[in-house]
Fold:
Amino acid sequence: MLGMIKNSLLSTVEAWPYQVLRKGEKEQLSYEERECQGGRFAVVEVVGKPFDEASKEGVLKLLKYVGGTNDKGIGMGMTAPVSITAFPAEDGSLQQKVKVSLRIPSQFQANPPCPSDESIKIEERQGMTIYSTQFGGYAKEMDYVNYAAKLKSALGSEAAYHKDFYFCNGYDPPMKPYGRRNEVWFVKE
Structure:
């Protein structure tokens, strides 16, 4: 636990590498098209709970893992964003299933420590192109749902992206009260 707290308060945060391909603005919403690097990710799936509760549970497990609750007992440092895969229902609300993921820091990409918590899996992911929009504050389910609807409207019918899931991303520790960064990502098909 001490490693988790030290990791989130004192370590530098490594950003998930990406390149902006294009910027746009429509209906008073700014968005970007980005190419995001692939790599290894620590992932935990939480089902049967509301989005906000499930997200918090998954994030805490991943923070413990990168904070030292792993087979090597070492804190790895933090990466951003914490990415939550959300699965929208027909009405736009979110199903009670999330996948919370964190990109393994660069120095551990080749050989990440094994999680002590068996619910955490290490996944290899390919790079992807995404459409992204950003907003501030302490993001909750309704914020992500609202910004997903805005991004969908801004992109219109000409953009091809996966409709069965999207990413809800948070970049900041909970103790940061101002200038918070959250994003919704749609994965381009």
